[in-house]
C-alpha cells in the first residue's frame, strides 16, 4: 500500500495533482487508515497513470472521466481518435519547424528552391549582388502571382545564362550602377548593353529578348522595386532608350522600331516610351 506522496512519485505527478483528480471525481479517494493516512493500492496506480497519460495528451478532464468509465471498445476507439489528432498536431508542428528553420535561410524564406538555386548561380558567375537582389525582389511577386509559370520562366533564364554574352550583359550592368548620372563612361556601358540586345535580337529574334508575357501591372511593380533598389538604373534606362531599347523588367524596342547601332542617339524631340513601355 502506498501513501499519497509515494503514489505521486511512482506515477510521476504531484500530490496536488492527485488531490485535484480526487476533487474532479477522476480518482477515488480512499479512506484513512488507523494512523490517519490514505493508502493507495495497485489499482490506483494504474488508474492514475491512465489519467496522467490522457490529460498529457490534451484530453479535457471531463472527457477523461468519461473514458475511464467506458467499455473496452469505446475506450479503444477513443484512443485511436486521440492518436490521429496527435499525429495531425505533430505534422503541423513539423511544418512550423520547417518554417522557423527557413527564417535563417535568406532567399529561401520567400522563394521556391529552384529560384534560390538560380540566384546562387548568378552569384557564382560573379554578378553584382545588387543585380542579384533586384532579381530576387522581382521573383517574389512573380512566384506569388503565377507560381505555375515559374518553371517556364526559369528554363528561359537558364537558357540565357548558358550564353557567355548574357553573363557579360549582367556584369556590364553591374559596372554601370557605380556610375553617376553625368559620368561619361555610362554612355559607353549603355552602348555595350544596347549592342548586346541588338545582336541577340538579330541573331535569335526579338522574342528571345523577352517573351515572359508578364502582365503590365506586375511589370510596373517589378520596375518600381528595381528603381527603388538601384536609383541609378533610371538613368541607364534613359540612355538605352536613346539607343532604341526600353524597359527593365520587360525589354523591347522603342515604339517597336529598329534599334540603331550601339552609339546612335535618337532625336531628343521625338516621342519616347517610358521605362515601363
Secondary-structure map with pairings?
Elements: H1 4-11, H2 15-23, H3 42-56, H4 61-68, H5 72-102, H6 113-124, H7 129-145, H8 150-161, H9 164-176, H10 185-204, H11 206-209, H12 216-229, H13 233-242, E1 245-246, E2 252-253
Antiparallel strand pairs: 1-2
Helix pairs in contact: 3-4, 6-7, 7-12, 9-10
Descriptive key words:
277 residues; two-stranded antiparallel ribbon; 62% helix; rod-shaped
Summarize the structure.
Helices cover 62% and strands 1% of the residues. The termini are far apart.
Compute the number of strand runs: 2
Give the helix tally: 13
Instruction: Give the strand order, joined by hyphens, for the main sheet.
Output: 1-2
Helix amount: 55-70%
Shape: rod-shaped
Overall radius of gyration = 35 Å
Q: Supply the helix-strand structural class.
A: mainly alpha
What this model shows, in words?
- The radius of gyration is 35 Å and the shape is rod-shaped.
- Helix 9 packs antiparallel against helix 10 (185-204).
- Helix content is 62%, strand content 1%.
- It is mainly α and 277 residues long.
